[in-house]
Amino acid sequence: MSVLLFDGVATVGGYVTGIDINGQGRSAFLKPKEPLKVKVSYAAQNSKEHPTDTLQIILFLDDKFFKCIYNDIPPVEPDVEEGEITMECTAPETAGRYVFRAGWGYNWPWPEDAYKNLLTTPARLLPVGEFAVGAYAPTMAISPMPYLVLGIPAAVLIGLGVVEK
């Protein structure tokens, strides 16, 4: 299974090919302030017309910067650079649904600039994973998508519309 931002592996640019949140896949349930471990797989590729462009792949948590997962010059199509990065932090204290989104940009001098640019083009920011934070264990399994059911009565979170391959 791959969570793709674009049409396929042959697509020039950068995209997320998989995400694992706390070992629960792309959809997870966490307790407030629980350790949060996110493993992201990605693929990056330049076009033949622009072989030396620097590519940034940015991961967002909701609309906030989370991590630049790629900032380099990838190989030229048809070659693809694939990699994986793991990040660790703490889950938010506030109960709710949190969505990871990812997007990419070219030739920004700093990943922060790519982040600011991506915020102005939300169509290039697509959901790749989600987690819910709640006070106690879920009443039923939260995978597979499309629904997350929290341990809070009547709280249902709609899943993501990601492309599976």
Description of the molecule:
By secondary structure, the protein is mainly beta. It has one domain (3-164): Sandwich (Immunoglobulin-like). Helices cover 6% and strands 48% of the residues. The protein is built from 1 helix and 12 strands, in the order ββββββββαββββ. It has one helix spanning 111-120; strands at 3-4, 13-21, 27-30, 35-45, 55-61, 64-72, 81-90, 96-106, 126-133, 147-149, 156-158, 163-164. The strands form 4 sheets. Strands 3-9-8-5-6 form a 5-stranded mixed β-sheet. A 3-stranded antiparallel β-sheet has the order 2-4-7, with no helix packed on it. Strands 1-12 form a two-stranded antiparallel sheet. Strand 10 (147-149) and strand 11 form a beta hairpin. The protein is elongated and about 50 Å long. Residues 1-10 and 137-165 have low confidence and may be disordered.
Task: Give a quick precis of the structure.
This protein has a five-stranded mixed β-sheet with strand order 3-9-8-5-6. The protein has a three-stranded antiparallel β-sheet with strand order 2-4-7, with no helix packed on it.
Topology, please?
Layout: E1 3-4, E2 13-21, E3 27-30, E4 35-45, E5 55-61, E6 64-72, E7 81-90, E8 96-106, H1 111-120, E9 126-133, E10 147-149, E11 156-158, E12 163-164
Parallel strand pairs: 3-9
Antiparallel strand pairs: 1-12, 2-4, 4-7, 5-6, 5-8, 8-9, 10-11
Level-1 CATH class name: Mainly Beta
Q: Quickly count the helices.
A: 1
The coarse overall form would be: elongated
β-strand percent reads over 45%
Kindly name the structural category: mainly beta
Task: Give the helix level as a range of percent.
Answer: under 10%
The radius of gyration is 16 Å
Give the N-terminus to C-terminus distance in angstroms.
5 Å
Q: Specify the biggest β-sheet.
A: 5 strands, mixed
Number of strands: 12
State the domain count: 1
> Any idea of the CATH topology?
Immunoglobulin-like
Give the averaged pLDDT, no decimals: 77
CATH architecture: Sandwich
Q: Strands of the biggest beta sheet: in what spatial order?
A: 3-9-8-5-6
The helix-strand sequence is EEEEEEEEHEEEE
